[in-house]
Amino acid sequence: MSKANNFQRIRELNYLQKAALAAAILERMTPNYGLFSEATGFGDEQVFRNALNLCWEKLLLPKSKISLEKQIEKIEPNVPELADFDMFGTYPAIDVSTALLGFIQGLMTKDDVEFVNVAKISQATVARYIEFLLISEDVTPDNKLVREHPLMQYEIEVLAELIDFVEGMGRITSDSIKQLKAQAVSDGQTNIGLAIESA
Q: The domain 8-182: what is its CATH number?
């Protein structure tokens, strides 16, 4: 089976499956923001955590009166500016912000392209991190090195497993969401391999 075509598989999922998958990917990305925030004293990870929890709730209870606009207003001031921080961690923090804002936008406009983009942003974060690692080892990164790097192979593998889970999930229930969330962080690390402190 070709593992490369995760994105084709994602496109074939239905709207709710895509949304649940994107939320699971965000579970793996969000702690990167927390680590950045801890290191710099900028921003509030709790704002991201709460917004993501409310998004899960919205998937479960689409008619609930959750104001997603309010979440966007809360997140925006917490998005770091690249120019303000001289550290690699700023990139993953911005990627989390972009992915989460896009995801909320997708829920508001029922545009599932936004959900596919979350998976793309996650992979781009991993690719950028691998380039950063290679450069710090004095290796010039190229596509092949990035693609074949264990971290990228692992990202592709985890994504494939999450897609498998979502495909077999059936109806979205609080139980299936609990299982999906647990599956997303079962390895105890973020998408770039940093340890997640269990909440």
A: 1.20.1590.10
